[in-house]
Amino acid sequence: MIRCGLFFLCLLPPVCLASLPLVINTWPFQSAAAAAWDALQKGLSPLDAAEAGCARCEQDQCDGSVGFGGSPDERGETTLDAMIMNGDTMEVGAVGNLRRVKNAVGVARAVMNYSDHTFLVGESATVFAEGMGFKSEDLTTNRSRDIFSQWLNQKCQPNFRKNVFPNATMSCGPYKPQAKLQSGPGRKLGLIDLRSHDTIGMIVIGQNGQVAAATSTNGATHKVPGRVGDSPVAGAGAYADSSAGGAAATGQGDIMMRFLPSFLAVELMRGGDDPSTACKKAISRIKKYHPDFFGALICANTTGGYGAACNRSPGFTEFHFMVSNSQTNKPVQEKVYCI
Prior knowledge:
Elements: E1 2-4, E2 8-10, H1 13-16, E3 22-26, H2 30-41, H3 46-60, E4 80-86, E5 91-98, H4 104-114, E6 119-121, H5 122-131, H6 142-153, E7 164-165, E8 176-177, E9 200-205, E10 211-217, E11 238-241, E12 245-251, H7 253-256, H8 261-270, H9 275-287, E13 295-301, E14 306-310, E15 318-325, E16 332-337
Parallel strand pairs: 5-6
Antiparallel strand pairs: 1-2, 3-9, 3-15, 4-5, 4-10, 7-8, 9-10, 11-12, 12-13, 13-14, 15-16
Helix pairs in contact: 2-3, 3-4, 8-9
Pfam families: Asparaginase_2 (PF01112)
EC number: 3.5.1.26
InterPro entries: Ntn_hydrolases_N, Peptidase_T2
């Protein structure tokens, strides 16, 4: 069940709240939702609105999980991932492990607009961005330095290493493979802070049903350098198809990207599922293999119906997201209880 708007509960949110245009984004990032909604009100396209919303989150450093100055990797560097998708043309632009450029979603849009490629990564993505006129600057802040220093003082715990020697609980490396791999799935998910996996995923649907989606994140805190999660991967972090709808994911990207939940949810809506049901089915597919994973999904169809779902895990029982449409005419925070 989703809490609809401010005053009532709606058992069938896609029916009672279907309205266009629509902006919906993961987490209660109100400024991002307002920027996207404002762009639509000014007559800009859904693609422009999705970019504007995510760019605002990058500027605001939403929750510390988006933009510069957050989620340092094992070397203390902040790198960015972003993606944008046009549901009318099925074009995608994406960047991963982007260094020294703050406007990651803008670079992703440039990849779409000014190259025949879909996905650029690492230092080469930065070189491309600089060639397109994006400013190169340090993404480190006092906050990210403090996060990194505290992590070093905690003997580099928690981290994403497994099956390595010396034992990661005793040393910060260098890491080498153990002679024999441990049995089982490796490190427990509970060792990783839930807050280290957040991102913004945004779906925008125009008055005529045009669908766009975008994502932006600074990835998982203390990640192995070079790691790219689900956010910039089309079908994983987000997906848009103007013949069906859009979806966006947030959570433990290293797990979620293996299941392409955003693509699956859009295909389920194409097959007739309402957005809430599509979200739940996509989350349940991951839950079958990883019962305690941390993650959530938002979904919207081309009529403006929307829904969300999340997996119940330790410390995560409900998921908050933002909605703006012609009924609210402003960003409104809603929530869904996890399954």
